[in-house]
Design brief:
This protein is of the alpha+beta class and 334 residues long. It folds into two domains: 113 residues, Arc Repressor Mutant, subunit A, CATH 1.10.10; 171 residues, Aminopeptidase (3-Layer(aba) Sandwich), CATH 3.40.630.30. The protein is built from 14 helices and nine strands. The strands form two sheets. The protein has a seven-stranded mixed sheet. The protein has a two-stranded antiparallel ribbon with strand order 1-2. Helix 4 packs across helix 5. The longest helix is centred in the middle third of the chain and has 28 residues. It is elongated.
Length: 334
C-alpha cells in the first residue's frame, strides 16, 4: 500500500520530492561507476554555466528559478572542486561573475556521453509512461507562478475567519515596518523624495503628534500593510503612505485598510478626506473609486512630483455612536 497515493493532491509535493530522490539516487549510482559523480544540487548550475557562462549569481538564480542562497551554495561547492571560477567583470569591478574553469570544461567534455545517455533514457521512460510529464510540470509551474497556493489558502482562511486580519493602531515598534513597507512601493514605481524621508523617518513627530493616525494591518502577528491619516487642521485629513507587502497583495488588505481609515475619519468627525496618487497606479485608483473617492484633477500644490491625481472621498463621513467610541479608545491607546 502506498499511502501517499491515497492522499492524492495533498501529497503532491512529497511525491515529487520522493520521485526526485529516486531519480537522483539511481543516477548517482550509475555515475559513480563511470567516475562522473556530481555534487548534490550542482548539476543544473554546472550545465547553465557550460551553456551560457559567464553569469552573475543573480543571473544564475533567475535563469534557474532558484533562490539566491541555493545557487550561491552550489557555486561554492563547484568552486571548491575546481570546476567553476569566480572573476570580476572588467566593465564593473563591483560585479562578480562565474564561469567554468579549464578543469570544469574538461569535466563537461569527459561526462558528455553519460549526460547524453541520461537524457535519452529519461526521454524513453517518459514516453513509455504514456504522459508528457515535462509539459505537465511546466504548466503546473506556470499556474503556481500566476496563482500561488499560499495566496489561495490565505484567501480562503480569511473568508472563513475575517478576524485573522487585524487593523491595529501604530506603536513605536511599528516604525521600521511603516518605513520599509512604504519605501518598497515607492522605489518600485517612482523615486523616494525628501518629503517621503521626513515622514517615514519620524512618523510620530510628523503624523501622530500633529493629530494624525497610522494604521497597521496584521495577519497572524505579521505586519502586512499600513496607511496613515495626516491631519491638516479644521477636521481635514489626507489618506497617505498606504502600502501592502507585495507578497500579500490581492487578499483584500488594501480595502480593509481603506475601510478602517474611513471609519476612523467618521469617528474623528472629519469634514473632508482626500488623497494624492499617480494615475498610472491603476489598481489603486480603481480601489479608491470603488470605495467612494472621486477624481478632482491634478493636486494644486503637492509636495510630491509623482502626484498627478487628487481624489476626494464623497461617501458618508458622519460618525455613528460606535465609531465615536472607537475613536475615544484609539486616542487613549496611542
Amino acid at each position: 500500500m502506498d499511502f501517499l497515493r491515497e492522499l492524492g493532491p495533498l501529497a503532491l509535493g512529497t511525491r515529487l520530492k520522493r520521485l526526485s530522490d529516486r531519480v537522483y539516487e539511481q543516477i548517482v549510482r550509475a555515475a559513480t561507476i563511470a567516475d562522473a559523480e556530481f555534487p548534490p544540487g550542482c548539476f543544473p548550475l554546472f550545465k547553465l554555466l557550460e551553456a551560457y557562462g559567464p553569469l552573475s549569481i543573480g543571473e544564475c538564480a533567475q535563469r534557474l528559478g532558484l533562490a539566491h542562497p541555493t545557487v550561491l551554495r552550489a557555486a561554492r561547492i563547484l568552486t571548491a572542486r575546481g570546476w567553476v571560477e569566480r572573476f570580476t567583470d572588467g566593465g564593473d569591478r563591483r560585479r562578480s561573475l562565474l564561469r567554468l574553469s579549464a578543469a570544469g570544461r574538461a569535466e563537461a567534455e569527459r561526462t558528455a556521453p553519460l549526460v547524453a545517455d541520461l537524457k535519452e533514457i529519461v526521454e524513453q521512460e517518459l514516453a513509455e509512461s504514456g504522459c508528457d510529464l515535462l509539459d505537465a510540470l511546466r504548466r503546473v509551474e506556470e499556474q503556481l507562478e500566476r496563482h500561488s497556493l499560499e495566496r489561495r489558502l490565505i484567501r480562503r482562511a480569511l473568508a472563513r475567519d475575517p478576524g485573522l486580519l487585524r487593523i491595529d493602531d501604530f506603536t513605536p515598534d511599528d516604525a521600521g515596518a511603516f518605513r520599509e513597507l512604504n519605501l518598497r512601493w515607492i522605489r518600485k514605481f517612482f523615486r523616494v523624495e525628501p518629503p517621503d524621508r521626513e515622514v517615514l523617518d519620524a512618523p510620530r513627530e510628523r503624523i501622530l503628534d500633529a493629530g494624525g493616525h497610522i494604521l497597521m494591518a496584521r495577519i497572524a502577528g505579521q505586519t502586512v500593510g499600513t496607511c496613515a491619516l495626516i491631519h491638516h487642521g479644521d477636521c481635514e485629513y489626507e489618506l497617505a503612505k498606504m502600502g501592502v507587502d507585495e507578497r500579500w497583495q490581492g487578499l483584500g488588505i488594501g480595502e480593509a485598510l481603506l475601510r478602517a481609515a474611513i471609519k476612523r475619519c467618521r469617528s474623528l468627525g472629519a469634514r473632508r478626506l482626500f488623497l494624492e496618487t499617480n494615475s498610472t497606479l491603476r489598481p489603486a485608483v480603481t480601489l479608491y473609486r470603488r470605495m467612494g473617492f472621486v477624481p478632482l484633477g491634478s493636486p494644486p500644490d503637492s509636495k510630491y512630483s509623482r502626484a498627478d491625481l487628487l481624489m476626494e472621498y464623497r461617501g458618508e463621513l458622519a460618525a455613528s455612536v460606535a465609531d465615536a467610541a472607537d475613536a475615544s479608545a484609539s486616542s487613549t491607546a496611542s
